[in-house]
Amino acid sequence: MSHPTSMSDEEIVSMVLRDQSFFQHIVMRYEEKLFRYVRRLGIRNHEDAQDVLQEIFFKVYRNLNAFDTTLSFSSWIYRIAHNEAISFYRKKQVRPEGHLIDEGDEHLLREMAKEDSSELRFDKRRNAEILAQALSQLERKYYDVLVLRYFEHKEYEEISDILKIPIGSVGTRIYRGKQRLKKLIDDTQVHI
């Protein structure tokens, strides 16, 4: 048998279905990624993010038998994470607390700069601040696809599965989201 770190998600799921003690491998593989994702969805409080993460893994564990192994496990677990974050906001009756953007996550800005002849010139810290501010002003439908695509590095098909929208809508929302984001960034820079 292969070592779990070299196994596919589907192989690990198969192992967990035979022996529940292997569930720890799912947790180890996804804990950091999903924690970062729920924080990016606006759950900034560390304890709240940990609580949501615990609830995600509880739901994954409880529903693993229902997982369709012909689908992507990654998309399935991110869908659960997305739903749990939305559930958190509904229970608390609060809005997301802003968005967590790491300084190293410049991919989206580079993508936008490629599409525009003007260069985005400002230091990394300021980049992150401006990007976070602009993202916080985006409609949720655009924010979600941009975070999944550029910060979680998901393919269009995975985004479609996670958000339960047609793949064509994913492309449209990414395009429109980048356009709106660019306008918000341009407007922010004018006021600086």
Task: List its traits.
2 domains; globular; 192 residues; Arc Repressor Mutant, subunit A
**Backbone CA Rg:** 18 Å
- Classified by CATH, the class of the largest domain is Mainly Alpha
CATH level-four homologous superfamily name of the largest domain: RNA polymerase sigma factor, region 2, helix turn helix motif
Helix percent band: 55-70%
The largest β sheet comes out as: none
Instruction: Tell me the CATH architecture of the largest domain.
Output: Orthogonal Bundle
Beta fraction of the residues? Answer: under 5%
* N-C termini distance: 58 Å
CATH topology of the largest domain: Rna Polymerase Sigma Factor, Chain: A
- Name the quaternary structure: single chain
Total number of strands: 0
Outline = globular
Round the mean pLDDT to the nearest integer and report it.
82
**Count of discrete structural domains:** 2
DSSP helical segment count: 9
**String of helices and strands:** HHHHHHHHH
Give the low-pLDDT segments.
Answer: 98-106, 116-122
Q: Which structural category fits the helices and strands?
A: mainly alpha
